[in-house]
Amino acid sequence: MRFFLIFLSLCFCELSHAADGDVMITPDSLPKEAVMRITPDSSLTDAVRKAREMRRLGQADKVTIVLSRGFYQLYESLVLRPEDSGLHFVGDDKNVIISGGLPVTEWRQNGKLLEADIPDFNGRPMDFRQVWVNGEKAVRARDVTDFEQMHRIINVDKKKRVIWVPTQAVKNIVNAPYAEMVLHEMWCVANLRIKSIDIDGDSAAVSFHNPESKLQFEHPWPSPMYNSDHDSPFYLTNAMELLDTPGEWYYDIRSRKLYYYPKDGQTPDNIEVFIPSIETLVEVEGTPEERVCDVTFENIAFAFTTWMRPSLYGHVPLQAGMYLTEAYKLRPQIDRPNNHKLDNQGWLGRAAAAVRINYGEGVSFHRCSFFAMGGSGVDYEEGCLGGKVSDCKFADIAMNGYVCGSFSPKGLETHKPYRPADDRVVCSGQEVTNTLFTNIGNEDWGCVAIAAGYVRNIDINHNEICEVPYSGISLGWGWNRDSVCMRDNKITANLIYHYAKHMYDCAGIYTLGNQPGTVISRNVVRDIYSPSYVHDPNHWFYLYTDEGSSNITLRDNWTPSDKYLKNAVGPGNVWENNGPDVDKLIVNDAGRLVDDCGNP
User: Fold this and answer.
1) 289: CB partners within 8 A, 6+ apart
2) Residue 168 · residue 248 · CB < 8 Å
3) Which of 75, 107, 376, 431 has the CB geometry, 3.0–4.6 Å to 399, for a possible disulfide?
């Protein structure tokens, strides 16, 4: 655990508590408050149940569970229900980690590689898509080290459902059983499990497993580029034949052996390796009639999660990591009053998150860290009121960092306006403030630091966003200018830089849909990446109001130039004083107000 204790950088307050295992109840106070101290040897589930019973029996109205230093290993999600309202989790040390990761030990040398056996997890063989070595995410074996060197596709045969690529790119993995292609498609990447490779001279036809094969060749947007000036690049991964560079790993699920190519100086005696065992660490599950209220996490790190759906079904997203479950082209197109004609339909799902919240009220995170995650970080999914993420850090996350609100229910075609009959399902009043997002979307390059869908009254302010593959903040959903449930959102005084590391058709701040009362102001957006392999090297922006964006005010945002896009927008948008001439006081105010240790 020594490397990860060094890796964590949050600073925490000193607290005084009862001895380990004791419960201290504050006497003669209304409401009665209890403090329970636990250690990593304790069960978080048992502690939550004990707190629940204390409240049920009238022994306390609020309970604080204090976690002492160490790893709190979970074998299943910690579930909080309405009966757990008023519960507070506090770490009394900067190295308090709620973890879904298992250590891998007993390495042995196998030529240039290190090898370890992976045991069952809870009675079942394990599978995983991430490995962390000495606090850093190791590279799942792939064919390129430098993404600038990715191969390009040659052609796409939608009828035969094959992608033609150079033989040179795939000849070494013809017999690899579980290889994957990661295909760059305008503003998304698709994870496609390779079914077969048929070589024909200097070209090869690659086919894929279902359901992603059907999705990939039926959905029109986003699409791969071929016979163009910017043919879509791809890389190959998850094959033993590709394990040829220090820092890479491969897991042979058939033999259940993990192979790692060590970096210089790494030996079986000085590496600390973690693999993720579960997808979600904490689930907050209320109902429309009874929410989970007033639950907070403070000074706690959440780490080591996975998301296995791409290994089972592939991953074909529409946008912002929201994956397609069905999608196809429309002929003839659908006429939509107040909107342009629609040429496709699609239905969506969303990735797992380390912390997911449904029907919570005031579920908040203060001075917490979210890192080493195979899915998203925090997801306020449905029916949430309030809830604040403040003074936190999100880093090394495969999908989105912070997610909030619906991105179209599973049964609603995603271009239709979302007007729920029961208003209680809409997420409202969330806040994200003074938080750092970095190295987000490092597996799904179409993901963003902050993804807010059908939300209202969300307040995104004074955050720092950098090292992201696509856009920084995405607000709104639906590609539709009709009236929906969104309104009165705020994006204020954020600092966004080093974005678009891999994908274009992007912006520092990006919007969709009709959002009356929404204001985007006093943000700073600068320093965009310039990867050579994007589909259109000119199609990037600092601010981007996309399809249906309506009734949004964009004011006093500093950008190096007025490179903005207003694409198929609706009425009521106001642009005032944006660009390089914004007052320096506004520029200096953007970003986090205090650092990780709480200092101005």
Assistant:
1) none
2) no
3) 376
Q: In what order do the strands lie in the sheet with 450-452?
A: 78-80, 282-285, 353-358, 376-382, 402-404, 450-452, 473-475, 506-511, 540-545, 564-566
Calpha distance 213→196 (Å, rounded): 12
Task: Report how far residue 359's alpha carbon sits from residue 367's, in angstroms, rounded to the nearest whole number.
Answer: 23
Strand 233-237 to 180-185 pairing: antiparallel
Bridge-based pairing state of the strands 353-358 and 376-382: parallel
The encoded tokens of residue 155 equal: 């052609």
Structure tokens at 170: 């795939």
DSSP string covering 507-536: EEEEE-SEEEEEEEES-EE--B---TTSS-
Name the token pair of 73: 């290993």
Count of beta carbons in the 10 Å neighbourhood of residue 296: 18
Q: Please give the pLDDT value at position 291.
A: 98
Q: How far apart are CA 405 and CA 215, in angstroms?
A: 25
pLDDT tens-place string over residues 164-209: 999 999 999 999 999 999 999 999 999 999 999 999 999 999 999 9
* Helices and strands per DSSP (H, E), number in the chain: 6, 55
Rounded distance between C-alpha atoms, residue 189 and residue 148, angstroms? 15
Q: Which residues contact 576 (CB under 8 A, 6 or more apart)?
A: 553, 554, 555, 556
Residue 526: which residues within 8 A CB-CB, separation 6 or more?
496, 497, 508, 542, 558, 559, 560
**Whose CA is closest to 473, among 518, 429, 416?**
518
Note whether 526 and 561 are within 8 A (CB): no
Instruction: Return the number of other C-beta atoms located less than 10 Å from residue 313's C-beta.
Output: 18
Q: In this predicted model, what pLDDT tens digit does every residue of 98-123 receive, in sequence order?
A: 999 999 999 999 999 999 999 999 99
Buried residues in 584-593 as b, exposed as e (16+ CB within 10 A): eebbeebbbe
Amino acid at 128: F
In this structure, what token pair is assigned to residue 296? 């907070």
Cis peptide before 222 (omega within 30 of 0): yes
Nearest CA-CA partner of 346 in 334, 356, 358: 334
By mean pLDDT, which of 22-36, 462-476, 478-492, 497-511 is the weakest?
Answer: 22-36
The DSSP H or E segment spanning 149 is none
Residues 6+ apart with CB under 8 A from 595: none
What DSSP line would sit under 219-270, residue for residue?
A: --SS----SSTTPPEEEEES-GGG--STTEEEEETTTTEEEE-PPTT--TTT
Q: Sort strands 162-166 and 155-157 into parallel, antiparallel or unpaired.
A: antiparallel
Strand partners, 142: 237
Q: What residues contact 121, with CB distance under 8 A and at least 6 apart?
A: 75, 102, 277
Rg, C-alpha atoms of the chain:
24
CA distance 142 to 233: 14
| 408, two tokens | 């179209």
- What is the helix (H) or strand (E) element at residue 140, kind and residue range? strand 139-140
Helix (H, G, I), strand (E, B) or coil at 41: coil
CA–CA separation, 297 and 124 (whole Å): 31
Q: Which residue has the tokens 């969300």?
A: 458
> What is the pTM (predicted TM-score) of this model?
0.96
